[in-house]
Amino acid sequence: xxxxxxxxxxxxxGNSLTPIDALQKFGCFRLGARVHDLRMQGYAIxxxxxxxxxxxxxxxxxxxxxxxxxxx
Length: 72
Fold this sequence. Notes:
Elements: H1 3-12, H2 19-26, H3 31-40, E1 45-52, E2 55-62
Antiparallel strand pairs: 1-2
């Protein structure tokens, strides 16, 4: 299964994802790029900027029903 597909399934299951999570779970170094690709396919993926221990990073997730916005 591709990184993109793994990330999508993870978020469809109601989980959020950070770049470090994506690296540890899927070996994905470029989560932002994979999220961009999914958004271009029509998936409604939310993001927020998180600051923790002096570091800033994005957290991505999908709301319930976000799949309905997918282009067929």
